């Protein structure tokens, strides 16, 4: 029977693990939660319509991962085991959290040879579900046992290492798995029950990856109603399991008033136990470092009365850019890496190895004195 070794809590703007702030005694990192986006650590495709995931010689661009032909579910479990074997490498570089999602991420983004990979998954009427199925949730909100096993294996592996999992429930490429919002509400309950009934205490819940007006297909997953889902998850934990869960959502395009109104920003994040931001350096426009939109987001949130009355951690869990890193850390926010392919997209090759992103791991290792 699983017994938790790692308990995550928040106090003001700091993250605590087992009643102590993270990275204790460090000058600039105490209470932070540096993380990496690894949502395809539990990936599976049970439709079997495409061979984009194969490394059987027909897709040499996938050769770095050495997967062979993708066969569900065996390949899915092998991928998860490879990820777990990389956790020590992440932690040795100061990474104390990884990101998972019951509905995965965007595994074909950036693959220019695949027309279906271009543009946002949310722009398609059926998301990505015409091409592949990567959802732990069935239409009625129940959790697939195989997917649950992979997520649970990772959460427990992180627990043994004193690490945290930011567990996302919904992704806009797979949200059309639900015919209506009743399935979404049931999935919230199922996800909370999964965490509580298994006794996981190293989990931060993220309702939806990149909440914004234009991504999701169901109105209940858009900014105007996300606060309802945060409150529901927290209430389910308290009323059914006597557990105080830590719940939030991540934003996208929060500075765009066509995507988020000022009232929606206040309503969602004043309800949240911590704040999750996305974005990074925008080299093309010169919006980098201190002039980045990330800094605008942080400064806007900190200026609100509800934040002053009840400060909470600000965590980036999908970002890039070394100047953005410096700017947000200087403003008391944690940084989370989103890479262009090998950590987030497909095929992933887990661990600290990508030459263009070693700056993140080396900088975090130094900052956290790991």
SSE blueprint:
Blueprint: E1 8-11, E2 14-17, E3 20-21, E4 35-37, H1 74-92, E5 97-101, H2 145-160, E6 164-170, H3 181-197, E7 203-208, H4 223-241, E8 247-248, H5 262-271, E9 275-278, H6 293-302, H7 305-309, E10 314-318, H8 322-330, E11 336-337, H9 358-368
Parallel strand pairs: 4-5, 4-11, 5-6, 6-7, 7-8, 9-10
Antiparallel strand pairs: 1-2, 2-3
Helix content: 25-40%
The separation of the N and C termini measures 31 Å
State the CATH topology.
TIM Barrel
Helix-strand string = EEEEHEHEHEHEHEHHEHEH
- Main sheet attributes: strand count, strand direction, barrel closure: 6 strands, parallel
Strand content: 5-15%
Number of strands: 11
Radius of gyration: 19 Å
Q: Taking all residues together, what is the mean pLDDT?
A: 95
What is the count of distinct domains? 1
Q: Low-confidence stretches at least 5 residues in length (pLDDT < 50)?
A: none
CATH-level-2 architecture: Alpha-Beta Barrel
**Structural classification:** alpha/beta
Shape: globular
Strand order of the largest sheet: 8-7-6-5-4-11
The tally of helices reads 9
